[in-house]
Design brief:
It is built from eleven helices and 17 strands. It is an alpha/beta fold. The protein folds into two domains: about 100 residues, Alpha-Beta Plaits; about 325 residues, Rossmann fold (3-Layer(aba) Sandwich). The strands form four sheets. A seven-stranded parallel beta sheet has the order 8-9-7-11-13-14-15, sandwiched between helices. A four-stranded antiparallel beta sheet has the order 2-3-1-4, with helices on both faces. Strands 10-5-12 form a three-stranded antiparallel beta sheet. The radius of gyration is 22 Å and the shape is globular. About 10% of the residues have low confidence.
């Protein structure tokens, strides 16, 4: 044990002089560089108790046996590689890798209006969202939300036809993002918050998480705003970014644990990276093995490349198409694309009681998360893999026959998916 202790002291003494946390500027919509990280993730072998002793030096515990080691702001790509090599050669760790950055897969945002939207309780004509399943539903449902006509994408994926079968249950969807504006009238009463994973305010100052959440589960049939894909679904907001929109692998890992602990059945991640991370892969696998369905963006690089976490086993990776069902120029292609959905000019909730038109695979993927919630509302005993298979099998094939790298299994068809789920009730 003394030898091991001395080895720990040597290795971490070597790095401790450089333990100054650095937060570089966030380029949220650019590619991730190989050296674009400011911390290392390490997984200990037998030395977890020793590692605990050294957390006072700035080492942060992410989960059991996994820690975050900050690097110096003066580190270059070369010195980062040298430190990684030294830690790997120490023999103390099972894993040493960079804490890579994930980027928001958003192309552009168009603010539609900025006037204050009235809260539901101030309008006697508004329908309580909790009562929306108390009436008999026709084959196709057109909700009374004032801006529903602006949501062309819901018709493209046959959401109104699906609502004639189900409008969802109170299933919990974990949204790993920039936070959510819990005071927005179209999200009021829908959102609970997890513990912050990035030491910043839990509220959404950017808008991305609020936009994503509105697509999934906005209050619907309430005479205002928009309709969500799954009317009764609840959102667990897990803020993984700072106020510049910057997230790291370590933030995702912590949030996945929280999502499980709080009972989320679906986890939605509208961020991605082109850097493979074993730590992220292990965390995604653990969440999948716990029964969680993970849905993520295919990415906005516009080229053929793998994006993570979409490329990991069991994850539904979602690309974007336009109104003519053609792949959008920005939508990343590759084996990780499972499905596509409309991704351009998506009208949804935003911060400060506003609504935006937003573009990117970030806003195609939430349609799939809402669809998964509707499928589970029909057949709650389905496994996460069974829900994933239903969504894939029910998609409208696009491009070359069968699964391909541009469209995956095809365009999301929510009506077909919920019809298929009825066989598993």
């Amino acid at each position: 044990m003394n030898i091991l202790t001395n080895k720990f002291k040597f290795v971490f003494g070597l790095i401790s002089a450089f333990l100054i946390i650095f937060n570089p500027p966030c380029f949220a919509f650019t590619a991730v560089n190989d050296d674009d990280y400011d911390s290392l993730i390490v997984k200990t072998k037998r030395a977890s108790r020793l590692m605990y002793k050294y957390t006072g030096h700035g080492y942060k515990k992410i989960k059991d046996s996994t820690y975050l080691i900050p690097l110096s702001k003066n580190d270059t790509a070369k010195t980062k590689e040298q430190k990684i090599a030294a830690l790997r050669q120490s023999g103390i760790f099972d894993l040493v890798e960079p804490d890579y950055k994930l980027v928001l897969d958003q192309e552009e945002t168009e603010r539609i209006y900025t006037q204050i939207v009235r809260h539901a309780e101030n309008d006697n004509n508004l329908t309580d969202a909790g009562d929306i399943i108390s009436f008999d539903l026709p084959k196709e449902v057109t909700p009374n939300d004032k801006d529903f006509a602006a949501q062309y994408y819901l018709k493209e994926v046959n959401a109104p036809q699906a609502w004639g079968i189900t409008v969802g249950s109170a299933l919990l969807v974990g949204v790993l993002d920039t936070g959510v504006d819990v005071n927005h009238p179209d999200l009021n009463g829908k959102v609970s918050s997890g513990t912050d994973t990035n030491d910043v305010d839990l509220n959404d100052s950017i808008g991305h998480g609020t936009e994503v959440s509105g697509i999934i589960a906005a209050n619907t049939n309430n005479h205002q705003g928009i309709a969500g894909v799954s009317w009764n679904t609840k959102v667990l907001s897990l803020k993984i970014t700072d106020d510049l929109g910057q997230a790291r692998v370590s933030n995702v890992v912590s949030a996945l644990d929280q999502a499980y602990q709080k009972g989320a059945r679906i986890v939605h991640i509208s961020l991605s990276t082109n850097q493979f991370s074993q730590t992220l892969k292990d965390a995604i696998k653990q969440a999948h093995d716990r029964g969680i369905l993970i849905i993520s963006t295919a990415g906005n690089s516009g080229i053929e490349e793998l994006r993570y976490p979409a490329a990991f086993d069991g994850v539904i990776g979602v690309g974007a198409v336009d109104e003519t069902k053609q792949k959008e120029f920005y939508s990343t292609t590759g084996e990780h694309v499972s499905l596509v959905a409309p991704g351009t000019s998506i009208y949804t909730t935003s911060i400060n009681f506003t609504y935006d038109k937003v573009t990117g695979t970030s806003f195609a993927a939430p349609q799939v998360s809402g669809a998964a919630a509707l499928v589970w509302s029909i057949a709650p005993k389905l496994t996460n893999d069974e829900v994933r298979n239903i969504l894939s099998s029910s998609a409208d094939d696009l491009g070359v026959p069968g699964k391909d790298q541009q469209y995956g299994y095809g365009l999301l068809n929510i009506e077909k998916a919920v019809e298929m789920a009825k066989a598993f009730k």
